[in-house]
Amino acid sequence: MTTRKLLLLPGDGIGPEAMAEVEKLIAAINEEAGAGFESERALVGGSAYDAHGAAISDADMTLAMDADAVLFGAVGGPKWDGVPYESRPEAGLLRLRKDMGLFANLRPAICYPALAEASSLKRELVDGLDILILRELTGGVYFGEPKEIIDLGNGQKRGVDTQVYETYEIERIARAAFELARTRRGKVTSMEKRNVMKTGVLWNEVVTAVHGREYPDIALDHMLADAGGMKLVQNPKQFDVIVTDNLFGDMLSDIAAMLTGSLGMLPSASLGAPDEVTGKRRALYEPVHGSAPDIAGQGLANPIAMIASFAMMLRYSFEMVAEADALEAAIAAILDAGTRTGDIMAPGCRQVGTAEMGDAIVAAFRERLAA
Ligand code: NAD
Ligand code: IPM
Ligand code: MN
Predict the structure, then answer these.
(1) Is the separation of the CB atoms in 108 and 311 below 8 Å?
(2) What domains, with CATH codes, occur in the chain?
(3) Residue 117 pLDDT class (50, 70, 90 cuts)
(4) What is the pLDDT of residue 310?
(5) pLDDT score recorded for residue 257
(6) Distance 297 CA to ligand 1 centre (A)
(7) 90: Cβ below 6 Å to ligand 1?
(8) 100 within ligand 2 shell (Cβ under 6 A)
(9) Per UniProt, where does NAD(+) bind (predicted)?
């Protein structure tokens, strides 16, 4: 039997609560489908800092590099507000992304019909919504140098972050966008701010060139990222794939989350380039939401973003398409049945906690796998 090695990094806050539901899914898919998943847990974020003074240890970083896929919960929280910048919980996630080479971050925003009322927009604007934000994840202002606070010695300081993109970084994310669009509705919208940023000018130029050379079958348009944010709430269904840089992608995907009803609904996949010899790509799957300190430890978190991230793992790392479809159908069925965590609660529905939501989805998933 194939064995598939997973590294689970639950992290902080609601991360471990959500990850517990993934462990139930792993047991289910192994039992019902002989999937051969072997998982081990390691620390990341504040919990790793507390244990060994770094947001991820070198040993755990090696485990992540060697795993077939990594599942990540969430990191951060007020407990670690005072720790040195280099060791803050979020640094663990950034190191994983950078060292694993995870340049392509897929953030699908799908509005399940049962949740159209939970969106902050009118039903007709979001019902049936299925868009994909493709966020560049290893470049831009997150990683550009210099990045520092300089003491100017006159009672003033200067904070510096640097936005940098090189041609190859834009080319590979553009290709990823066009390839994804080919499997969807064939449309890519590229967002930057070429009116104020040099990286925006280059981004626009490179995306246009890749399109002209290699993807004439795909429809491409360009938007300034601020106007793109506006269009995303004005009429989100006009989009198919949105490709954008690291920082704009971070913000636009949180906005897109609310179109689907809750930040607790949005999964993501972070993918590296295929290995030239084996064709395998490093990958990490994580919900878009954070550690939600306001509800952590109370069993209130919506585990669907984490569970749907597991479905993306089945699809993108293991080509287990039928199983991924079954899991997504299980989520839809449970929502249709009116089962809701607090963040997506609606009149006439039944409110449950994290574990009960997970159990319901796992049971529906098992039924579909067994059928
Ligand atoms: P957050 O995403 O943690 O929470 C924002 C709001 O959404 C909160 O009210 C929270 O209760 C709610 N929410 C989030 N996920 C939910 C879920 N699954 N179910 C129900 N409600 C949910 O963002 P924040 O409060 O700005 O950040 C808290 C911490 O998380 C910070 O330290 C931040 O850096 C970190 N963070 C981590 C990640 C990550 O690990 N990938 C992502 C974003 C933020
Ligand atoms: C996300 C988060 C991260 C980011 C933080 C926690 C570093 O907000 O994954 O969206 O800014 O990329
Ligand atoms: Mn974010």
Answers:
(1) no
(2) 1-102+282-371 (3.40.718.10), 105-267 (3.40.718.10)
(3) confident
(4) 98
(5) 85
(6) 13
(7) yes
(8) no
(9) 77-90, 290-302
